[in-house]
Amino acid sequence: MERSLRLFLTGSLCLMAFACIKPVYYEKYQTIDTPWDKNTSYFFTCEMEDLSASYNLSVQIRNNNLYPFQNLWLFFAQEQPNGTIVRDTVECILADGYGKWTGSGISVYHLTIPIRSNYNFPQKGSYIFTIRQGMRVDQLKGIQQLGLRIEKNN
């Protein structure tokens, strides 16, 4: 009886833990050529088929201790299947006012920056997302990887 109860409780805890996790529709990382040249863009391509659902889009950043700034400006573009391009400028706060990295990690810090919440894609088809650094330096060191994550809302 005790074993059955323990198994039931373990299963219930697992279900509760996974019930809160949003399903990842798309997630991809790219390694940044170091230093990151201001003219170098990184591309992510994703097929969108379910227009009835809403999605959360976020940029994933992995930086190290060589990154010399508190923030990171990104130029984010979304090319829709019909060729329309939607552009955004995103400020990512990588460190607090005291220089403590806001991301999780020890020597490489991982940070998730929300771009769009509860977003409905307007068309079915292939979307191309482009990310370029928008800092005032030509060569940016300390950014190791860049990722795009799209979560499907229930």
Describe this structure in words.
The structure is a single chain. By secondary structure, the chain is mainly beta. Helix content is 12%, strand content 51%. It is built from 1 helix and 10 strands. Strands 1-10-4-7 form a 4-stranded antiparallel β-sheet, with no helix packed on it. A 4-stranded antiparallel β-sheet has the order 3-8-5-6, with no helix packed on it. A hairpin with a 5-residue loop joins β5 and β6. The longest helix has 18 residues, at 2-19. It starts with a helix and ends with a strand.
Secondary-structure topology with pairs:
Layout: H1 2-19, E1 24-31, E2 36-37, E3 41-48, E4 55-64, E5 71-79, E6 85-93, E7 108-119, E8 125-133, E9 139-140, E10 143-152
Antiparallel strand pairs: 1-10, 2-9, 3-8, 4-7, 4-10, 5-6, 5-8
Class from helix and strand fractions: mainly beta
**Residues in helix, %:** 10-25%
In CATH's first tier, which class applies? Mainly Beta
Distance between the first and last residues' Cα: 36 Å
- The CATH topology annotation reads as Jelly Rolls
**Mean pLDDT over all positions:** 90
Largest sheet: 4 strands, antiparallel
User: Numbering strands along the chain, what is their spatial order in the largest sheet?
Assistant: 1-10-4-7
**Tally of individual domains:** 1
Query: Spans with pLDDT under 50 lasting ≥5 residues?
Result: 14-19
Order of helices and strands: HEEEEEEEEEE
Quick one: CATH superfamily?
A: Galactose-binding domain-like
| CATH-derived architecture | Sandwich
- Determine the number of helices (DSSP H or I, runs of at least 4 residues): 1
- Which band does the percent of strand residues land in? over 45%
Radius of gyration: 19 Å
Write down how many β-strands occur, each being a DSSP E stretch of 2 or more residues.
Answer: 10
- Looking at the structure, what is the overall shape? globular
